[in-house]
Description:
The strands form five sheets. This protein has a 15-stranded parallel beta sheet that branches. The chain has a seven-stranded parallel beta sheet with strand order 3-6-10-13-16-20-27, with no helix packed on it. Strands 7-11-14 form a three-stranded parallel beta sheet, with no helix packed on it. The protein is built from no helices and 30 strands. Residues 1-6 and 12-25 have low confidence and may be disordered. The protein has strands at residues 2-21, 24-35, 39-44, 53-73, 76-87, 93-98, 105-107, 112-132, 135-146, 150-154, 157-159, 165-200, 206-210, 215-217, 222-256, 260-264, 267-268, 277-284, 286-312, 318-322, 327-329, 333-340, 347-350, 353-356, 363-374, 377-388, 392-396, 399-402, 405-411, 414-418. The chain is an all-beta fold. It is elongated.
Amino acid sequence: MPSAKMLSCSSALGADSISAAGFAAAGVFGARAVVDAPVRAELDGNVTGSSSVLVKAKGANLADARTLTISAAVLGGFGASLQFAEVGSSADVEAKSVDSNNNQQITSSGKVEFIAESNNDSVVHTDLAAGGLVAGIAVTVPTATIAGATTASVQGNVTAGSAGIKVAATSGNNVKVTIFALGVGALGPAIAVTWGEAEISSGADTDAIVLANASFSAPGGAVEVLATSVNHANSQAKSIAAGALAVSVMKSIARVGGGTLASFAGNIPSTATKTASLTVRARGQNQATVDAFIAAISLSLSGGVNLASAEVTSDASTVAETLDDSSVNVSGGVTVDAALTSDNQASDVIGGATVARSAHYQNYALANLSNISGGAIALGATVSDAKVNGAVTASLNGDIAGSNGITVTANGTNTVRSK
Length: 419
């Protein structure tokens, strides 16, 4: 009995704004791309007999905002742009059973599966230039976010054959902001200001959950509860100001807050032929990287302020657990396993250039910035902050009434680089 729902959604906006005048020119421009539709596959009711049961939801979402803004004039130019790309909090991908009366029965002679899979991308790219003889001011504020969750959950009573029962949630989330800003004032001030933020929010969780009112039986078969995620947030920015007075101000943020959870709170009772094993496994990979470069060049006074923050927050935990309400009786092993996976990235962008990685990372935060200030008086300030706060936890609670072995493991490597 297959039940599946698959959906691919995209929102892409690319736009240009070019202003030119003999005296003065100003341009203010915005772009917004949003995907906020859910993908759900639900089994509500009973299955009294089948050769297999598959409840699967698969979603792929892309929000892409790209702009080019140019303002130029003999006297002065002002250019401002705002970009927003979002895979929203309603863009969930869910595969679940619904058992509001606590009496659902799902029966199969074969395998029973609840599978949720998502692939989300949120991308902003902006190029901005403003200039004139007297003044050039360029301001850009791009934001890219992912907030949709991926969930596989079961709360019914499931009986399967020796092919077993699987509850699995898998996600890939990638958010990226790329900025170039240029301000030129030949005889007066040149100012370039950027504020870019790339975030995978705490709502973008990946959860595989067996709830407390669920009872699983798979004589001779395995029960698997699996949650796997890869979350990458990247912010890249270049800002240049050149004039009689040159000021460049930049703030770049990359933040990952989506957690990964595999949780079992149900019951596996003893049967004539016992269920073979229980595996509760969580795999996470969370990376936040920032590369920010500014240059302020002037014949008199120049200054640059460069702030970079790359963070894997405490919400981005990787957790495998059995809860207090659980009771397990199997013939084989009980495994509760939480770990991080290594990336396959070949390089980072550092100082605007592609630099080969000397190693592969699991949880990773990189905040790299550089300032160039040139003039009779040159000032500069930089703050670079990189943090990893995402825990890796495996815990065994509840009762193990029967097994031939119990394994509880947690393993991960965190790498932080700031310069």
